[in-house]
Amino acid sequence: MTFIILVSYWHVARQWVKMRVHFPVAAHSARRETGAQTPQFYKDQFSLRRYTDRFLHHASSTRILEHKRASSAYPPYVGLCRGGGEGETLSAPVFNKDDWLTDKANLGVPFPNASGTVSIDQQGASCHAETVYRQIFFTMPAVLGYWNIRGLAQPIRLMLAYAGEEVEEKRYQMGPAPEFNKDEWLTDKAKLGVPFPNIPYYKDGDTIIVQSRAIMMHLARKHNLYGSTESERIRADVLASQLGDNLMGFVRVCLSTRMFKADFKAKKEEFLKGLPDTLKSYSDFLGDNPWCAGKSITYADFGLYELLDWFRRFEPGCLDKLPNLVAFCNNFEALPAMKKYMSSAQFLKDPILNPFADWGV
Ligand SMILES: N[C@@H](CCC(=O)N[C@@H](CS)C(=O)NCC(=O)O)C(=O)O
């Protein structure tokens, strides 16, 4: 009996020491070691998926995510999550958190703790694990996969740059002629795990989106680039669909030799005959508006800019008689985020199309 009482006391005393002595001491040393405000704990057997799902739910306002992604100075926390089991202090390299902490007080979300500050309480490591996994999740940027060309991904890249969303790009390289080897992409294609694997794809946590327009519309909803009235949204959607038609027509011309065994020069000439009318339709659609849906920029404008830029490269001077389209391009390029992106190393000016095309390679 005495033995049982002693063991119980020992157990309670151990728990008390753990909560009141071990954790605070560990907290203190972690603070010193990492420069962080609070210690970081984790429990590695917790499922990442479970916590990322929960975090996605918490962050359905996505302000936390956006905050992070808009802030390139915020260092990755993934490095904090190594070693140890329950209650172990992670001896991380120093990641200064001031960038985040300055904004934390003003974040205005129910869980500003998702910043990664950890409180030591009776829930012990499980709550720490969640917090740390949240850190991992929201410091992991989305991935955009596409060929190492402008192609269908460029308007998406422009949107991401405009929205300030940090993204990791997987730019697949197609092999040279005559094989034009696609293995780099095909290896990933088999593992993508969606019913219609294709590029571009946009992978954000567990969410994988294929189809360029679906990606753009998702980003439009996420970053408020989808107009504010139904008629603005209709205008944006109509333009995006029209752009898709014209882009495919144009790409077919550029793939004359490879896909249609047709004479590129003849196809180009034919295309150029129709180009003024095509451009006039866009000019009429835009009218006096600064952007295609009206006063505010929408996802379709990113597609319009891209196609107009291809056209003026394909046929220099083709926009000259349409001052509103010229102004549209100039205004687009003058947007501070675009100016910055277009002069950055990430910006792809060329190639526009894959190496088997007759133009834009
Ligand atoms: N409709 C799709 C077309 C996607 C597509 O055709 N992707 C081309 C590059 S532009 C590709 O190489 N896909 C790889 C594949 O089919 O495996 C979209 O808009 O995303």
Automatic annotation (TrEMBL):
Start and end residues of each GST C-terminal domain: 229-352
Alphabetical list of InterPro entries matching this protein: Glutathione-S-Trfase_C-like (IPR010987), Glutathione-S-Trfase_C_sf (IPR036282), Glutathione_S-Trfase (IPR040079), Glutathione_S-Trfase_N (IPR004045), GST_C (IPR004046), GST_mu (IPR003081), GST_superfamily (IPR050213), Thioredoxin-like_sf (IPR036249)
Biological-process GO terms, alphabetical: glutathione metabolic process
Keywords linked to the UniProt accession: Transferase
PANTHER family: GLUTATHIONE S-TRANSFERASE, GLUTATHIONE TRANSFERASE
Function: Conjugation of reduced glutathione to a wide number of exogenous and endogenous hydrophobic electrophiles.
Quaternary context: Homodimer.
Name used for this protein in its record: glutathione transferase
Organism per entry: Lingula anatina
